[in-house]
């Protein structure tokens, strides 16, 4: 079939590579993020989890079973144990990859000639009582990006389904953009974001198909909308039409093509 026509808008959504270019490369690996940047992604999404020796690694699931050559719970394994596993060969691409630490991802993103923004999602915030956010902010400080001059100029945003995690980040790094993820009426209506000081809302595309008005309502209170996970042409056109700011996708290459030229 022929390629669909490009979507033209004066201000199109920014394309955020969800776990990197995760359809074409194993998620959360250097290969996935390098391809995403090469394909023109403007943002990189990653999930962070804590290891038993308190390093932050980019892994989505509670265990390594789905995305590596090993088995086990991430938070019960040391970074050295994770480094012994292959996080690439499970994917159709078929080449070995190492576990990626948040520090390595920040180095990749910030050393790159093309400026990209990181959307860092905290996982398991309750069990570790804020330790994930504490280590995350320490890392952003170390890289000099925890206190941007404005949200628009920030190289990182913290995103989370946990209102508590967003609240802790706002309290300790007030200039950092934060997005409260979720599909509840309180998130769509804005009251949950107000309560914790989130600078944006993050509904799923399933919800935004039926509630496009949430985007204008968020914008009216100065909040951005981040929508996940948007891979289909009809959803991309919908998001562009209703004014979504950030669109997280597993296919950054093809979405960038659909959204060009601006
Ligand atoms: O970008 C937000 C989205 O990643 C949330 O869902 O399960 O993929 O982390 P999940
Ligand atoms: Ca995520």
Automatic annotation (TrEMBL):
Top-level lineage group: Bacteria
Family annotation (CDD domains): GDPD_like_2
SUPFAM superfamilies: PLC-like phosphodiesterases (SSF51695)
Residue numbers spanned by region Disordered: 1-23
GP-PDE domain boundaries: 13-259
Any single Pfam family the record assigns to this protein: GDPD
InterPro entries: GP_PDE_dom, PLC-like_Pdiesterase_TIM-brl
Family annotation (PANTHER family): GLYCEROPHOSPHODIESTER PHOSPHODIESTERASE 1-RELATED (PTHR46211:SF13), GLYCEROPHOSPHORYL DIESTER PHOSPHODIESTERASE (PTHR46211)
Protein name per Swiss-Prot or TrEMBL: Glycerophosphoryl diester phosphodiesterase
Source organism of the structure: Williamsia serinedens
């Amino acid at each position: 079939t022929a390629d669909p026509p490009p979507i033209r808008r004066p201000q199109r959504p920014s394309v955020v590579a969800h776990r990197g270019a995760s359809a074409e490369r194993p998620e959360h690996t250097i290969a996935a993020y390098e391809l995403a940047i090469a394909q023109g992604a403007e943002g990189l999404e990653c999930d962070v989890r804590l290891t038993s020796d308190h390093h932050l690694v980019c892994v989505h699931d509670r265990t390594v079973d789905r995305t590596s050559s090993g088995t086990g719970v991430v938070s019960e394994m040391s970074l050295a144990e994770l480094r012994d596993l292959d996080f690439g060969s499970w994917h159709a691409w078929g080449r070995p990859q190492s576990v990626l630490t948040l520090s390595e991802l920040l180095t990749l993103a910030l050393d790159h000639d093309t400026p990209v923004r990181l959307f860092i999602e905290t996982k398991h915030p309750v069990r570790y009582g804020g330790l994930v956010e504490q280590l995350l902010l320490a890392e952003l400080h170390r890289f000099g990006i925890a206190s941007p001059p404005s949200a628009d100029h920030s190289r990182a945003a913290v995103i989370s389904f946990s209102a508590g995690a967003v609240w802790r980040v706002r309290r300790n790094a007030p200039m950092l953009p934060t997005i409260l993820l979720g599909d509840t009426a309180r998130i769509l209506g804005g009251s949950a974001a107000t309560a914790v000081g989130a600078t944006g809302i993050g509904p799923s595309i399933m919800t935004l198909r039926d509630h496009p008005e949430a985007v204008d309502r968020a914008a009216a209170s100065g909040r951005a909308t981040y929508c996940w996970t948007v891979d289909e042409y009809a959803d991309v056109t919908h998001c562009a039409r209703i004014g979504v700011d950030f669109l997280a996708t597993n296919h950054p290459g093809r979405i960038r093509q659909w959204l060009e030229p601006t």
